Amino acid sequence: MPDRRTRVSRLIDEARQDLAYSPRPRIGYGQARTSRPVLPIVAVLVVVVLTATVVVVLRLPDDSPVTSLRRPVARQTLQGALQEVPQNTATPPAAVLPTPAPTPPAPVAPLTTIRKPHLFVVTNKPLGAAVVSKVNRLSGVKAVERADAAEVVLDGKRVQTLGVNPSTFRAFTPKPTARSDRLWRNVSAGELVVSFVLGNDGGMSLGKTVSTSRTSLRVGAYATMGMGAIDAVVSQQTARSLGFPQDNALVVSAPGADSAELRRKLLRVLPKGSQVATINPVFTAPRRTVWSAGAFLTVPQIRTVLTAAVSKLGRPYVWGAEGPDTFDCSGLVQWAYAQAGIRVPRVTHQQFVSGPRIELSQAQPGDLLFWRNDPTNPAYVSHVAIYWGDGKMLHAPRTGDVVKIVPISTRNFAGAVRISPQVAAQVR
Predict the structure, then answer these.
(1) What are the φ and ψ backbone dihedral angles of 420, each rounded to 5 degrees?
(2) Is the peptide bond prior to 104 cis by the omega test (within 30 degrees of 0)?
(3) What is the DSSP pairing of strand 119-122 with strand 275-278?
(4) d(CA 137, CA 101)
């Protein structure tokens, strides 16, 4: 594509004459699943933990509106290898998978308190009572909730999923969600709650019955997971019937503790190999407001990013895909930057905090643009594109579409970010 390469070079040379500027960054801390035709497994769990909401309900099974909640925007990520559970080698045809008989709504304890979650822990071993006791005794920790965490193949997609106790986990969700007895009874009765991104962009529609090797699950509600790439929630009983490891995750509420310091303390008392990330970080804001040109990509690096991205025009969007032949929105960004030797985090919310915010009018080719398109939570950053120049952007839109260059839309626009390799490398 010599014409495209020439255009890339021209746009970069014209737009990137001077990278030094002084924006005032907003402070915040911020999907990777490649579809495989395999049975449900416990695999590499990518837990991307972001501020605020854990579960935000869009609709319950009767399709009636429930609520729309606001979530602060910030995300961090962690990756840990989890124990793999042996599975059968053949999957029965989807048409004959056993569908459980309807289960009456199970009793769920009434809500008595709301606890804001701050840190998330995942490991490849059960976290027993002794470990939980040590965590509880750490200064600043107010409450700890155990959960089962795994990656499971649902409807052909590898989905990071939490198995929870609806009676107690509800306390760690936003107030309107926590108060929804009907939601938690339905989870307890065996229904599956999926994120809006997975449901809408990934094609896992509300009310759909999705298959696993052992049973079928009904998508009972859309939800936004405040724990990053956790895109589904089921009851612990359902999780364990699917082969999840037991009690290998913790949600920690520590409203008065510095999150970075508490994370270091947690790693000292947790089993070796444990991963810890923040949900609602309590940090001291950095003082730096002036960034030098050296804090950002060089012109050759930007040219490489744009050339790599434009080479994928026409490639299909696949939820959770990271390339090289299919992509989702943040997967395309991560892949393109990697071609220039720049590590950017995998998830949209992480990318949103991988450099200073800039005005859209300041955007230059290679900067990232973000949108809040999730109606279950208008503050949730759910889409990213690469600024191409001349009022256009390059992105992977959604299921059924392809990588393309289109005019920028300002509807639900969340902001523009200039990637700083140093900052991006620290987002975990």
Answers:
(1) -110, 115
(2) no
(3) antiparallel
(4) 44
Return the closest-CA partner of residue 264 out of 424, 114, 428. Answer: 428
Residue 58's nearest CA partner among 187, 224, 230, 235 is 224
| Residue 272: CB atoms within 10 Å | 8
Indicate the Cα dihedral angle 358, 362, 364, 369, nearest 10°: 40
Measured distance CA(396)–CA(88) in Å, rounded: 35
The pLDDT assigned to 86 comes to: 33
DSSP 198: I
Q: How far apart are CA 306 and CA 9, in angstroms?
A: 9
Sheet containing strand 357-358, edge to edge, reads 357-358, 413-417, 368-371, 383-389, 392-395, 404-407
Rounded Cα gap, residues 360 and 387, in angstroms: 10
How many beta carbons lie within 10 A of that of residue 331, not counting itself?
Answer: 26
> Distance from CA of residue 376 to its chain's centroid?
15
Question: At 244, which amino acid appears?
Answer: F
Distance separating alpha carbons of residues 40 and 152, to the nearest angstrom: 5
Q: Of 193, 150, 125, which Cα lies nearest the Cα of 40?
A: 150
What would the 3-class secondary structure string for 96-155 be? HCCCCCCCCCCCCCCCCCCCCCCEEEECCCCCCHHHHHHHHHCCCCCEEEEEEEEEEEEC
Task: Give all strands (DSSP E) within 187-345, no chain letters.
Answer: 192-195, 209-211, 216-223, 230-235, 249-253, 275-278
In a 10 Å sphere around its CB, with 0-12 CB exposed, 13-18 middle and 19+ buried, how is residue 53 labelled?
Answer: buried
Give φ, ψ of 113 to 5 degrees.
-155, 160
Mean pLDDT by 10 residues, the chain (428 residues): 50 42 32 36 34 32 27 31 33 33 69 90 92 95 95 85 94 78 87 84 84 84 72 92 93 89 93 84 58 89 97 93 94 97 88 91 96 75 94 93 96 95 83
Residues present in the chain in total: 428
Closest to 410 measured CA to CA, from 428, 375, 383: 383
Radius of gyration of the chain (CA): 21
CB-CB neighbours of 108 under 10 Å: 22
Please answer whether residues 135 and 222 qualify as being in contact, where contact means their C-beta atoms are separated by less than 8 angstroms.
no
Work out the angle at residue 117's Cα, subtended by the Cα atoms of residues 133 and 145, and round it to the nearest 5 degrees: 35
Question: What's the N-to-C CA distance of the chain in angstroms?
Answer: 36
Take residue 171 and report the two structure tokens written for it.
């306390």
pTM of the model: 0.63
